[in-house]
Design brief:
By secondary structure, the chain is α/β, with parallel strands linked by helices. It is 27% helix and 26% strand.
Length: 361
């Protein structure tokens, strides 16, 4: 029997979000209903509200979430009612050419729930990243549920569902940071700080944080940065080279998603170094680089989609590291809020006042 719950929707482009009654259908084949316990407020949700990702309003926002499986549909064997799970937005198919080649983190046919959640009047909702977790409950594909240790706090576990995983994965999975490497991270929001934490986990010797906000640079030091650069007053390329013997960093992670910062990353890396783009650009942005420089510097130019993660492999591992005291996920949580506070959380995010607001239900 369908259920009615409270959830946060974006009704139209740049309109204030509001709490509405959401209708959750019973799970069909391959689907699960999850009772949400916590969900982080991510920049991607703000992009949905602004119409920067799609125009299929209204959106049911929220995707960085953890909760408990309430019910499952036919054929679901990977999770069961009562399981504590982190939600992910890339349920792998297991059958595409990437999956069959043993690279499921590149799956080309990820999927979500087939049924749609609606408003009371029957208006279909577009769930953010196929999840829609600013709600008391949500409907997802069962493959979007990753079981983890239920002893971990939902408020920190949910952050692995998007931003923290994207940043850590950009360093460890995509950038393949190794022991003794030098790493620079341009942009020290939630994803950038997670990349710093990932570089520290990997054993990087130098971790250089770059931002225009001294508050963010101070926070980056607590996450593991050994050096900081305020690029509003200092040339970041020259500063990064200065911290690395004039050579540039082995790995430079661009966590802003703008042409000018990508160009900085390109020239701030060592010869044969690696650039990782994890910041999300907008469709109209373009980058122009001398082809001779691309050829002559060698190395790798990579993009990192969801930190090239495999949730079934990476989420439990990172939860374990958190519980061992080796990864402080709680450091990413600036405040906990309710469903009715999301609009104000977007404003605080825009002003740089928070690393993460987390809706706790």
């Amino acid at each position: 029997m369908a259920q009615q719950v409270q959830g946060v929707i974006a009704p139209g482009k740049d309109e204030p979000v509001r709490v509405e009654t959401i209708v959750i259908p019973d799970p069909g084949p391959g689907e699960a209903v999850v009772k949400i316990q916590a969900c982080g407020v991510c920049h991607t949700d703000l992009h949905y509200k602004q119409g920067g990702i799609a125009d299929t309003f209204p959106f049911l926002l929220g995707h960085e979430a953890a909760g408990v499986v309430e019910s499952v549909g036919d054929g679901v064997t990977d999770v069961a009612p009562g399981d504590f799970v982190i939600l992910n937005w890339r349920a792998v198919c297991g059958q595409c050419r990437a999956c069959l080649r043993g690279r499921p983190w590149y799956c080309f046919d990820t999927h979500n729930a087939r049924q749609r959640m609606t408003l009371l009047d029957g208006t279909e909702l577009s769930p953010a990243l196929g999840i829609g977790a600013f709600a008391e409950k949500t409907l997802v594909a069962s493959g979007q549920c990753t079981k983890v240790d239920p002893e971990v706090s939902p408020a920190v576990a949910g952050l692995l569902g998007c931003g923290v995983m994207a940043g850590i994965g950009a360093a460890i999975n995509t950038g393949q940071v190794g022991r003794g490497d030098s790493v620079a991270v341009i942009g020290c929001g939630g994803v950038g700080d997670a990349a710093i934490a990932g570089a520290r986990l990997a054993g990087a010797a130098k971790i250089i944080a770059v931002d225009v906000d001294d508050r963010k640079l101070d926070k980056a030091r607590t996450m593991g940065a050994t050096h900081t650069v305020n690029s509003r007053s200092t040339d970041p390329v020259e500063a990064i080279r200065g911290f690395t013997g004039g050579n540039g960093a082995d790995v430079v992670i661009e966590a802003v998603g703008r042409p000018e910062t990508y160009q900085q990353a390109f020239y701030a890396r060592d010869l044969a170094g690696t650039v990782v783009l994890v910041g999300v650009p907008t469709p109209e942005m373009k980058i122009e680089l001398p082809l001779l420089d691309v050829f002559g510097r060698g190395g790798s130019l990579k993009s990192s989609w969801y930190g090239d993660c495999l949730p079934s492999r990476d989420f439990p591992m990172l939860v374990d590291l958190h519980q061992q005291g080796r990864l402080d996920l709680a450091a990413f949580v600036t405040e906990t809020i309710g469903l009715g506070d999301v609009e104000q959380a977007f404003a605080r995010m825009h002003d740089g006042d928070v690393l993460r607001s987390v809706v706790v239900l």
